[in-house]
Amino acid sequence: MKNLVEINNITFRRGDRVIYDNISMNIQAGKTTAIMGPSGIGKTTMLRLIGGQLKPDSGDILFEGNSIPSMNRQDLFDCRKHMSMLFQSGALFTDMNVFDNVAFPLREHTKLSEQLIKIIVLLKLQAVGLRGASELFPSELSGGMARRAALARAIALDPKLVMYDEPFAGQDPISMGVLVKLIKELNDALNLTSVVVTHDVTEVLTIADYIYIIADKRVIGHGTSEEIRNSDSALVQQFLNGKADGPVPFHYPAPSLEESLF
Amino acid sequence: MDFFARIGRSIIDNCSTMGRASILFWGAMVAKPQPTKSIPLVIKQMYVVGVQSLLIILVSGLFIGMVMGLQGYTVLVNYGAEESLGPMVALSLLRELGPVVTALLFAGRAGSALTAEIGLMKATEQLSSLEMMAVDPLRRVISPRLWAGIFSMPLLALIFSAVGILGGHLVGVDWLGVDAGSYWSIMQAAVDFNDDVMNGVIKSIVFAVVVTWIAVFNGYDAMPTSEGISKATTQTVVHASLAVLGLDFVLTALMFGTE
Ligand SMILES: Nc1ncnc2c1ncn2[C@@H]1O[C@H](COP(=O)(O)OP(=O)(O)O)[C@@H](O)[C@H]1O
Ligand SMILES: [Mg+2]
Fold it and tell me: Which helix (H) or strand (E) holds B100?
């Protein structure tokens, strides 16, 4: 199976803090890959690295065999027309209604007539179930609807890669189910490659073809849902089962209680 | 030692801020203009910025003109020179108060709104999302707002001066009884188009660039949190006001200092 994205031995720092230490991953074309890990571990950072918004300190990221970090701005912009990212907040443009938001990338990057754009936009909105909401403004949408509208915008240009940053965070169970189903369906129907970043274990185990669990600056486990569930790594089991204490300590590093109190 | 380290750090920080501000200015104003796409965006922003500021400009202009009419009259009447009220009001407005007060009001009204808007776009990842859609936010978001500010402010300053002159008329002529004919004719004789009107417009253009630049940069550079945005908004008003007052002295010295 071909890899759409290859992450090779990346090291990334924020100031003095190491976020990733020599980490590698592969994203297979046509599959849904999940990246899981506790909050603040650098999952959003990883998506920004793939999108070329951040550059790794060392190592390489390949998109269809081309190195993202070494591209100039023009090439990077051309490359980004083939990938899109669903941000955690949806990031809809607040001064446009849903229709114009979805039409935005089409108007920016294609020379299609308004008539054609209208047809495409309505089809994309139909796919996420929001055709009736095309005249609403982002402030009038619920959280789940905003994410679906953003998803319609993300697939407007028929990208090869869609990256989802915590698509399930803060969703009620129903809209969560809707989103899970949508991500799966879109991936299969449009022949997309999806990367889902999340810490919602159960949802992701049902849709992901391949899973990476990251913690402590590196990959602590990877494999299919089955392999992950049966993993004998204590770290992976702690993460899957949500145990408060384990290899990842409950306490932030501190001197012993006796020392601090007396 | 700690003291010097802190001074050094703050100098370095300020230099790097200036550097980032210059890069933003360059990227938004100079690099690769796209007239067909930009012009509608600039017009839309001019509408937003202009409408936001118009009411406050009209009201302030009127009151300042009225106050000047009253203050000028009480001084001039002692010397029997109340006929000169017209040029006094007109010249102070065109040369000084029009550009300066407009810039201060603009910084408070439109400038802070620009900073907050752009800061919020950053905090809600709209700017990142433009980047990921292969659209340069400098060109798409920053540049139209900069141009809109630069076009709007001189117009607003002229409106301010015009309304102020009417306010002076209202108090001086209609209320205190200065002769209307001499209010207008002495004013016409005393005001020179190049020296007074154009110098005021030039001042206003300089202020427009500085205020709008400070406003968009503070938004673009804000920490993407609610705290960061409120800090950036305050900073815009403070920095822009100080810059306007300081520059006003320099420009006045250059324009009128050698006569
Ligand atoms: N702009 C930034 N400047 C400095 N540190 C940052 C910045 N953005 C994120 N970080 C830090 O990098 C770490 C990883 O962040 P992030 O990728 O957002 O984590 P996650 O998405 O896994 O919750 C966090 O600890 C965060 O504090
Ligand atoms: Mg995140």
Answer: helix B98-106
